[in-house]
Write the structure tokens for this entry.
Amino acid sequence: MTSLVLAYAAVGAACAIAVTTDLRTRRVPDGITGGLALAAIPLALFGGLAHFAASLGVAVAVFVLGAFAFSSWAIRSRWGSCCIP
């Protein structure tokens, strides 16, 4: 097996652990989340600089959308009022 296949297998195993933990406890430990985020950096670099830049752009977009979705303004506004009892 190549090192890239082993790296993807390790990330897949960590994702499986995260899913199992989330389904049982409704919480994913920070160590798994941070470890997966750090593992994404060398995996993206295997594809070259263009692949790394695209991966970084997607990560920033997801962070911005998540920050908006979970901000207090979005939750308290009319957009998020359906979720507040």
Summary: Residues 1-46 form one domain.
